[in-house]
Design a protein that fits this description.
- With about 150 residues, the protein is mainly alpha-helical.
- It has a domain of about 55 residues.
- The protein is about 60% helix and about 5% strand.
- A two-stranded antiparallel sheet has the order 1-2.
- Helix 3 packs across helix 4 and helix 4 crosses helix 5.
- The protein is flat, with a radius of gyration of 30 Å.
- The termini are far apart.
Length: about 150
């Protein structure tokens, strides 16, 4: 730099700041080494095919898979004449009852939420909300009409 030229303070600051190298200048990292669901992580360390597992779970959740297996095992246990005498069978029945109770409680909760949401739309002064409310009511009435008589 010629002696008569003033130093550019911003350029000087930038050069000194970047030369400190507090962080890497280039960062190369794969951000999708596996995938997580709740507290479960699937990657190459605990699965021989994490992409396949992810594709399966995209179609059938772990909960749905386990539920179907639990239903099948329960049906097989009920066929056993000595089903009530094995602790494993008793524990399986308790597990199924607890899971069924959670499903029931969640269904009640979703219905309560639906009632609240419908009431919110009903009370709204927006014409779009009133139309959505009427459309939802019509859909619910149709579902009820389509139920078999034994369920109604």
């Amino acid at each position: 730099m010629p002696a008569s030229q003033k130093p550019d303070l911003i350029d000087t600051f930038f050069r000194s700041w970047t030369s400190m190298a507090l962080a890497p200048q280039k960062l190369m990292q794969s951000f999708n080494n596996g995938w997580s669901f709740a507290n479960l992580t699937i990657n190459g360390h605990n699965s021989s095919a994490p992409e396949t597992e992810q594709a399966i779970v995209a179609v059938e959740s772990y909960g749905r898979q386990i539920g179907k297996l639990l239903d099948a095992v329960e049906a097989l246990v009920q066929r056993q004449s000595d089903a009530g005498t094995h602790d494993a069978f008793t524990e399986l029945a308790k597990l199924k009852r607890r899971i069924d109770q959670v499903k029931h409680d969640m269904a009640v909760s979703r219905i309560d939420q639906l009632r609240g949401d419908l009431d919110l739309l009903r009370q709204s002064e927006a014409e779009d909300d009133k139309a959505k409310y009427e459309a939802c009511l019509a859909a619910l009435r149709q579902l009820l009409a389509d139920l078999p008589a034994s369920v109604r």
